[in-house]
Amino acid sequence: MGDNNNSPPGSPKEADHDSDANQIVKDDSSLETIVRKFQDSMSVGKRHAFWETQPVGQFKDLGDVSLAEGPIEPPTPLSEVKQEPYNLPTQYEWTTCDLDSEDTCTEVYNLLKNNYVEDDENMFRFNYSKEFLRWALHPPGYFRSWHIGVRAKTNKKLVAFITGVPARIRVRDEIVKMAEINFLCVHKKLRSKRLAPVMIKEVTRRVHLENIWQAAYTAGVVLPTPITTCQYWHRSLNPKKLIDVGFSRLGARMTMSRTIKLYKLPDSPATPGFRKMELRDVPAVTRLLRNYLSQFVVAPDFDENDVEHWLLPEENVVDSYLVESPETHEVTDFCSFYTLPSSILGNQTYSILKAAYSYYNVSTKTPLLQLMNDALIVAKKKDFDVFNALDVMQNESFLKELKFGPGDGQLHYYLYNYRMRNALKPSELGLVLL
After folding, report:
1. Domain extents in the chain
2. Active site residue 209
3. Is the dihedral angle over the CA atoms 15, 18, 20, 21 positive or is it negative?
């Protein structure tokens, strides 16, 4: 029920040379890339052997008007759900990972830090912090049994991991209880062991035991069948460092000093009443967010507990700001981003790329462009190197104007055991998965 949940930390790709704003770039049309894409397309049949046995939208059914939207398979009686775990290869055993245990959390952190998603050129790898993992995996109503590890029997070393957390996701007018599947990671040395399908089946079984029959997940690869495909965009905050580490490169006819000047931001936010979100703001932010998310075809159904968990600021995990009208004291606008650094592989000078990822943003009185520019300003003040955003919700309206450049990472969104007759446009999606 999920592949590793992210497209790689990617880097901006070749942009048009007419636009100074898109000058930080990297060529995506190298021979290696073309060969790799060709090989990928040739292995489609092989790669989907597993997914073709699962209740997911199949490519052959796309646009078939005779198929109803909704669950693909009905729920099984709980008594008929397999009671014991799936069999692993004999040298491995299941373990449930308690992220409240410092030792276990460190093991999970190290497994992901060394083996999780990399970009195509193997220059960057996601480096989720321990605080982030605890936040991501302990939402209201979470099940510890859904935080699943695989250990080697001989030395008890953690060699693989997959997680689910419960969520309520609205699809058109239906609110569906789902699991969000994330952090599927198998140790690099065990990639040939076919562990991933067993892990996906096992997390699915444990989700079924809680009487939940649908799931949402994302992947950087095409599986049957995306509900939408989004593009990552990157906004340089520290252009010199991004160029030095190879995340981006100097555009044609650009000097370093011109580039630094191009991306320079004001010292402080422009919007009167722009401040950090506090606990007392949870009801107002919930109202704002619920009202905003109602316009999208697929979006989370957040209540106040969810908003408190997912959006109340936590240092080095999630940042949230709002606009409180100086006159009426009404909360009119909101923006947020989460912290996901990447390890920089093989660079002598720098080891970490500090990236902010746009999360949920709502503009009612302050223009979205101005709100997001203020978000860039506070992210720069907090020493982020780059600000990333997907072209979901209304994000497209500010990307080019605020000097974001398109990346080479695409992120495909999937639903498990829930059919959508037609794919969505990214702007119809109101869901951000970590």
Report:
1. 20-27+230-412, 37-228
2. no
3. negative
